[in-house]
Amino acid sequence: VHAEQIFHTGEKLRQALADSSHTRPRFAVGITDAVPKLVAFRLLESLLRPPLAVRLECLEGEFEHLLGELALNRLDVVIADRSAPQRANLKLHSHLLANVEIFFFYVCELYDIYTHEFPARLNDAPLLLPSHGDPLRSAIDAWFAARDLRPQVVGEFSDSALLKTFGRAGLGLFPAPAAMQAEISAQFAAEPVGILQGVSESWYAISVPRRILHPALSHVLSEG
Prior knowledge:
single chain, two-stranded parallel ribbon, alpha/beta, elongated, 35% helix, six-stranded mixed β-sheet
């Protein structure tokens, strides 16, 4: 018993010393897998620049798990592709950060095949899409159904970065925000083949209501 007490005391001391070595205030952010890494970077990178100077901690995970961590005050905010559900036992605030149009992209060597007569040429085209349950996937499926188009879904992904990595290999067309066109062209050697009229993607900052907001959270909300 004494050995366990000594161990726990030593662990607490080690943690306290580790925390004291950080002069910057901690700001913990949960990011769902569906949020593109470039989007998360754009939303958060200014937190590491003056006048704000925080110790940024990013945790990726599934939506429900991150909301649980937020409710337990282990996170300061969750960045997600959907707003928080309305639950009587869990009060959460959802702040819309951005809403952007969606393009289909394809690698430069092959995208000319699909730019002509878009979107009719998408019949039987190979597609890489978000997994079922993702709000963007539902919108894309409805977009195809409204136009009576039947592409070939060759891959489904919960992680947006992995989806784009498969797209870079030329294995299928893939959706991505129009606002990220320059980055996608540079990182994935892909160009837009057409816009999905009426389809957009939204990103939200979800937080627990507090009387005093973390300065970094105030900054994220104001930037959005």
